[in-house]
Amino acid sequence: MRRIISVLLENEPGALSRVVGLFSQRNYNIETLTVAPTDDHSLSRLTVTTTGSDKVIEQITKQLNKLVEVVKLVDLTEGAHIERELMLVKVKAAGSQRAEIKRQVDIFRGQIVDVTSTVYTVQLVGNSHKLDAFVASITEGGVLEVVRSGISGIARGEKMLSL
Amino acid sequence: MELLSGADMIARFLGDEGVEYIYGYPGGAVLHIYDALFRQDKVEHILVRHEQAAVHMADGYARAAGKAGVVLVTSGPGATNTVTGIATAFMDSIPMVILCGQVPSNLIGEDAFQETDMMGVSRPVVKHNMAVRHASEIPEVLKKAFYIAESGRPGPVVVDIPKDMTAPNERFEYVHPKKVKLRSYTPPVRGHSGQIKKAVEMLLSAKRPVIYAGGGVILGGAASQLTELVERLNFPVTNTLMGLGGYPGTGKHSVGMLGMHGSYEANQVMHHSDLVLAVGARFDDRITNGTDKFCPGARIIHIDIDPANIAKTVKVDVPIVGPVDSVLDDMLELISASEQGADVSALEDWWSKIESWRTVHGGRYEPSTQDNIKPQNVIEALYKATKGDAYVTSDVGQHQMFAAQYYKFDKPNRWINSGGLGTMGFGLPAAMGIKLSFPDEEVVCVTGEGSIQMNIQELSTCKQYDLPLKVVILNNQSLGMVKQWQDMNYESRHAQSYMKSLPDFTKLVESYGHVGLTVNKLDELDSTMEKAFAMKDRLVFINVYVDPAEHVYPMQIARGSMNDMWLSKTERT
């Protein structure tokens, strides 16, 4: 089952490599990984999406918790949560295609953030399925380049991951 | 306030921390530190012949003393040579601090001479590692290193020290930090009282219980609590390879070691039990055999300080995360307060079953003849010669299993071996580390002619520091355990398991300035042992030629249940 694990870790050199290293050492999957400092600059927040049996997920959270630089973590998929991913995608947009692409972008509530005579660069935010669906909706050969941020997540309501 | 250079701070800190010996090897990146050590007299440096041995020395000391061992090596090859030793300590949760030199900060990343990314290289085999980024932080970084190494589930910590951090002309305020606090690291201090209560209720109603005690009992200093619990409840206890001595090997409740080469009775007791109390043990593959067939009728209580050990390989009914000594104390208190005792009549039946299992194999082996000495016989002779009270280190292979099976350890911290990683070459340097800190104790390295050659150069270190330990080689002229597996699984095709061109060990050890003795005949065995142990102030190397065809039994049958075993070359359960 797919899980989203959110980790607060010390914003120190090498801390990220420990997290990534742990996944490869113990043969765990990483599907996406995002990391950036939080409002408290001594901390980074890392979101990792992974898959595995309940036993494997339990080990992943325990092994992550054991890392000295990991301060706190939560498996967001255990409760109600919001997940978002940012995608920037270059789409072929020449002649009659331009209006069609614009309509698609509107349907998906994306934005065209850069324009040339033949290319639109589209920005789209949503869960991963939505981004997949947008890419699939473009006619074959229309997608020129895709970059995705990986998933960031946060729990719904009062639940918080903080010190 | 005193101003010290980074190098002097390191030397001073180690002294203030109460470190008596550090083991190491000098080189360019650590010359400032070596100079600082030279100018003080609190910490003595032991010069090994290969950095791997320095780590095993620190490891042997740590296992015997229960405190972190300290290693100092230079950058590059000095650091990479420590990796096997660090991994050995990591697998067995041994507290250790490894100080590694590094090229100066401004050269890092430029492929400078003797540069290795030791932070990256060591990462998978350390509890934690840290790089010094400013010389003024040295006391705090070192304090953290010791704290992390020794607290919680112990382990090795590497500190990477770029050469410029130790420059003699830059001085900083030095204070020995009394303690450190890390917001992201808080090892558990007590077990959950509700879980402990539940566990005690289960213990008191069990019909066929067993206590399965691991290395955590030794590391957690809980041997006396374990012994009290076993005796109070009248339960059988089995110790893992790492846990030998946690309950006395000659104690009447002991059913011996369990697992791959465990005793017949220990593996039977486990398989037929209705309740397993695992104390500081981690259900690894050399214990459980096929996990799907593991202890089919048992509920499991698991005490461990590391939550990640719980339910890693085997599902557990009552997990208790906490230090084993405090959890066992809490259990003993609840048992005392309880009106209900253990189930006496059920235990009576259980013990009569256990006593019948004891007679099935009972550690038997074919007796030696005058020209064919059995390796088991050698361990029994060693046990007799040392009155069962020596510190015994071993390397890895058949001799390790024979020592574990036939030397009955009655005290904790006396059986010192590489159980997790299985590192050949561990035994001699580990014994050196122990002898140095426990000079009045008998220290013996039981090894094979294969393993000893992996760190034999340390006989030179033994000479330099006058370490009169004893080395007993079970010389079967082959890599015995490899050969055993080839006999059992590869139709006796002995691929590379025969050691040709062995040195004349007697001459070799004599050239290092020690005493070499050889045993070829059975009637020389006891007398040679006595002669060797009578030489209190000499290192004596006893080369005993043993039966090259002998196998270690019992041996669990792969992927079977705990009690599927070979009992000899021809009999199985």
Structure description:
The complex is a heterodimer of chains A (163) and B (573). Chain A has helices spanning 15-25, 54-66, 97-107, 128-137; strands at 2-10, 32-37, 43-51, 70-75, 81-92, 111-115, 119-126, 143-155. With 163 residues, chain A is of the alpha+beta class. Chain A folds into 2 domains: 2-78, ACT domain (Alpha-Beta Plaits, 2-Layer Sandwich); 82-155, ACT-like. Chain A, domain 2 (Alpha-Beta Plaits, 2-Layer Sandwich). The model of chain A has no long low-confidence stretch (mean pLDDT 96). In chain B, 36% of the residues lie in helices and 17% in strands. In chain B, α2 links the parallel β2 and β3 (44-47). In chain B, the strands form 5 sheets. In chain B, strands 3-2-4-5-7-6 form a 6-stranded parallel sheet, with helices on both faces. Chain B has a 6-stranded parallel sheet with strand order 11-10-9-12-13-14, sandwiched between helices. Chain B has a 6-stranded parallel sheet with strand order 16-15-17-18-20-19, sandwiched between helices. The model of chain B has no long low-confidence stretch (mean pLDDT 97). The A-B interface holds A 9-10, 13-14, 17-18, 21, 25, 55, 58-59, 62-63, 65-66, 68-71, 163 and B 119-120, 123-124, 127-129, 131, 148, 182-185, 306-308, 310-312.
Give keywords.
heterodimer, A: 163 residues, alpha+beta, Alpha-Beta Plaits, 2 domains, four-stranded antiparallel sheet, 8 strands, 42% strand, elongated, B: 573 residues, alpha/beta, Rossmann fold, 3 domains, six-stranded parallel sheet, 21 helices
Annotated CATH topology of the largest domain in chain B = Rossmann fold
CATH architecture of the largest domain in chain B: 3-Layer(aba) Sandwich
Multimeric organization: heterodimer
Q: Which structural class do the helices and strands of chain A define?
A: alpha+beta
- Order of adjacent strands in the largest pleated sheet of chain B: 3-2-4-5-7-6
CATH architecture annotation of the largest domain in chain A: 2-Layer Sandwich
Mean pLDDT of chain B: 97
Total helical segments of chain A:
4
Order of helices and strands of chain A: EHEEHEEHEEHE
